[in-house]
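dumping these here so i dont lose them again. two proteins, back to back, each one seq then structure tokens. dont judge the mess
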Amino acid sequence: MKPIGIISTTALFLLVGIGAPANARQEKQEEKAKPQKQEQQAKPERQQQAPAPKQQQHQQQQAQAPKQQQQRQQQQAQAPKQQQQRQQQAQAPKQQQDNSAKQQQQQARGQQQRDNSARQQQQAKGQQDQQRQQQQRDNSAKQQQQAKGQQDQQRQVRQQQAVMQQGQQRQQRQQQDNRSAQQRSPEQVRVQEVAWQGDRAHSWKSEHRTWQQRGGYNGYRVPDDRFRSYYGQDHGFRIDVLPVLYVGGQRRFQYGGYSFGLLDPWPEYWSNDWYDNDDVYVDYYGDGYYLFNRRYPGDRIAISFYLN
């Protein structure tokens, strides 16, 4: 009996265990089917309620139409302002460019004005410098003219003094010549004529020689200041009043602190008493010293200077 009871009990548990899962699956399936049924039941309700939202929306649209019209009117009223703002915004860069161009033009004009002012100042300064330099040159020219005028006056004074001295010397010579002529006896005059005739040339052009032909002057040279004081064409004299010496057959005369001797014969066409009546002078010509006769300016007799 015990084994049969055990088997019965086991069978009962198996049936219960199999039945429980089956019930559980059935419950799950039923739970899944409930939402689908609810949705199916809800669809007819939504289908019945659908017309209500459209009518409500139409009412809402009618209610909102004045507002929308007012907004459109506001937008239309604001459109010119917006367009004006857009135009202003569009014109702003151009205006900025124009302002920038105007500023650049103003700066350029200002720079040009400064440049013109600087150029004018430089030109004015240059003109002032030129005027100053011209004034300095004028002053210098005036000073030079004044100095030259003073020199000319001094030269004229010296020339006048020299003319006066020459006049005085000429008068003194004439007085000496007169005294000498008065003091000389006829015999002395005749002896002097004979002596001078011995120095007369037969053909002066062939007999006389220049210092260039003689090989140049080698005698004593008179200092320039001394020479200017006693010799030259401004200092004339007559030979007959001078002391006469004969050295080695050469006739020498003392004048101006020196002795000079005649190296050439005197021309045959000169007057017999030229030494007594003609004014002569000593000058340096080209290559040496010569004796000149004012009555015969084209002739020159070579002479040599000696210390006394």
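---- next one ----
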Amino acid sequence: MLAKLAAFQRWLKGMSKSLPSRVAPALLWIACTGGCAHAPAVIENSLGMKFVHVPRGEFLMGSEESVDSLASAFPAYGRERLADLTDESPMHRVRITQAFYLGQHEVTVGQFRRFLALSGHVPESVADGTGGYGYNPGYDPAASARGDTFQGRDPRYSWRNPGFVQDDDHPVVNVSWNDAVALARWLSGREGVTYRLPSEAEWEYACRAGTRTRYHAGDAPESLLGAAATFEQDTATRWPVWRAFALPGHDGHVFTAPVGRFAPNAFGLHDMHGNVWEWVADRYGERYYAQSPTDDPRGPDEGDRRVRRGGSWQSWPLYSRCAYRNWNTPASRYPLLGVRLLRESRPGER
């Protein structure tokens, strides 16, 4: 039986080389879950969150892709938009010196609900009385003072209600950076091991999972189909004015998707692209890469903005790349914005 399994794994790996990039990762994952050397070590915590082992290593962080190259892949965007990505450079070598465990999935609605019930934490959108943001098909962004895509802040919207239906397996949204840090601190105290937000470098290292391409599934924007819930033809039905930026396919989800429905990357991590933006620990620095240390960079020491990574269910493919950087203030909450936690390794753990 074991010999047959090994032969099947070898066949899957061989087949993956000739298949589309959106299919190959799924086949490799099937091969590994049968017991190959690259199957991830997974730890489950008291809230039912699963964490995947990410080994220490080196990678090239950021991007120095030319406007011409980007324009070829993203012809609808316009050169001015493509030129406005200078905070991704210079590309620089980063060394992650300590292995860690990263959430296999984004924190879900059900997990966040259990955290609130056990900890007594009051989410910022409730505590300050201003609420969050939400999808309202009757809302006109042009009628708002800031032209926000979503309606808010409004007390009707929060992690419980982003204006669209979610169940307990969907990624929680309308979570501020402060809420995410509160969750990590509470888990650390409860379990006696350090939980925290990943650094921006740890996040990109984990997202790339050994690749050098725009996405962990490949360079082509279409490689996101099957690998991410992002802006495609289903979501474009709600924003038809942006259809030119939508992927030419369907992922079956207009809004968020249940976590883990798309193929993982080579580390076994799901939804690193799309579904929801993920808070990271670092303050944002537009020119930080030029002075970033090689070993375990942690971002600028000062600043009032925090980085978010990965894109969301409504993000155009350009903004879902491994290298793309965005930011918000720590009190921000939005129906595109969630969290993935890092669990530090205990001494002696793999």
